[in-house]
Design a protein that fits this description.
- About 15% of the residues have low confidence.
- Strand 2 and strand 3 form a beta hairpin.
- The chain has 14 helices and three strands.
- The protein is elongated.
- Helix 1 runs antiparallel to helix 4 and helix 7 packs antiparallel against helix 8.
């Protein structure tokens, strides 16, 4: 009987997850743009309980019985890829539950949590990366301190989650101070959100790595709204290229998603027209 609380079972299960995850992205690569839009709606199947003391879940038994050679998942369309990603996220959660049940905080446990957090961040699945991130920083780091670069990476993820997804700027600043994070890009991002500075936000968004960019995406709609409000108050018209730079959307998508009543004339967007001057009032 395979039990995920046993170290050997955990390591074998992680090996299968890792291989299948790599094969998944190999299959998803050509379809990534379409798949990316469906990741926000990722949902895991309802769990009926792990029962670690009795035996491993069915998925663990199936995977642990296979050879370690990775195979590309047979995913012919986006729905198949999304279903595969659901399975991967669920399997990672099962593995983390086994590690917690075993009170394991060694190098392997840290490696598993780092892998799971990064995968869940890319999948934009908050239910997976938030508990794993909190456990890594508040439990594992206390027992087995992370090296500075690794600690800064995952504290940055926590700060970005709080600031961009939760809109909890006070919590983001508190986490940054608590862990002593000194990161110029994170400081600039917080400044941009506090001051609603969309130019700084997009500049930072373009400069950070893919993991941070995925977390910052949750604040993009907010910054677009601030940019549109600012332009509506400040300009009669703007160049289309300038508008694209400020909101990072094409004209048709902007009209569809934000229902702006502006008009496009050539390469210029008419925001509002100046009032005509009726001339001097004549009193007879």
């Amino acid at each position: 009987m395979v039990v995920l609380r046993e170290y050997d079972a955990q390591e074998g299960y992680y090996s299968r997850i890792h291989d299948r995850y790599m094969a998944y992205w190999a299959a998803a690569g050509p379809k990534f743009r379409t798949l990316e839009s469906s990741m926000a709606n990722l949902s895991l199947p309802q769990d009926e309980g792990l029962a670690l003391d009795v035996g491993a879940p069915k998925l663990a038994k199936a995977w642990l019985g296979k050879k370690s050679t990775p195979t590309t998942p047979q995913c012919s369309n986006i729905s198949d890829l999304k279903a595969e990603l659901d399975i991967l996220m669920l399997s990672m959660r099962k593995l983390r539950e086994g590690i917690v049940a075993a009170s394991r905080t060694d190098d392997f446990a840290v490696t598993v949590y780092i892998f799971c957090i990064r995968a869940a961040v890319l999948a934009k699945h908050m239910e997976s990366y938030v508990p794993a991130l909190l456990h890594l920083l508040h439990v594992m780091h206390v027992v087995r301190p992370l090296i500075k670069t690794t600690l800064d990476e995952f504290v940055a993820y926590l700060v970005l989650h709080l600031a961009c997804r939760q809109r909890d700027l006070a919590g983001a600043y508190a986490a940054r101070h608590s862990f002593g994070l000194h990161d110029a890009s994170i400081d600039a991002m917080l400044f941009a959100l506090v001051h609603e500075n969309y130019h700084v936000f997009w500049r930072i968004r373009d400069s950070v790595d893919g993991y941070k960019a995925c977390l910052m995406e949750h604040a993009e709609e907010f910054m677009r709204e601030q940019a549109l409000k600012s332009m509506a108050r400040s300009y009669f018209s703007v160049e289309l290229s300038f508008l694209r730079e400020c909101v990072r959307l094409d004209w048709d998508e902007l009209k569809l998603r934000h229902a702006v009543g502006w008009e496009l004339e050539g390469g210029r967007v008419i925001i509002r027209k100046p009032r005509s001057n009726p001339g001097p009032l004549l009193i007879v």
